[in-house]
Amino acid sequence: MALKPRGIIEIPNGRDTSFDHGAFDPKTRRVFIAHTARDCVDVIDHDTSRHIATLLGFPEAAGVVAHDGNVLITNRASPTVPRPSAVSRQAPQASQAAGDRSGRAFCGRLVA
After folding, report:
1. Which residue has the higher pLDDT, 82 or 72?
2. Residue 44, phi then psi, degrees to nearest 5
C-alpha cells in the first residue's frame, strides 16, 4: 500500500536541515522526530497536525522509538543519557555519563 501525503506541517528551524527517524505513539497521539542537525526532538500532535514542542539537548539526535507513553531517544554525539520532560517541554533536567560516543539512549515515561 502506498503512502499518500495529507499535508505539510511546519517545524521551527526545519528548512535546509536534516532529520532522522520518527515515531508515533498511539497512546499519546504524538509523533516524535529526531532533528539531527539541530540537536533536538520535535513533537507533533497527530490529531491536529501541529508542531507542539521542541525538546532541546539531544546532540545529533539519531532516532526515536515511542510506545505506550514511553519514548526512547538516541544521541550520536553525546556520551551522556539526558532525561528531559517531554510533557512540560523543558530541556533535559539532568544527564548521566554513559561511556563512549557510540550511541546512547534516553528512555522516559510520558505524562498526560
Report:
1. 72
2. -115, 135
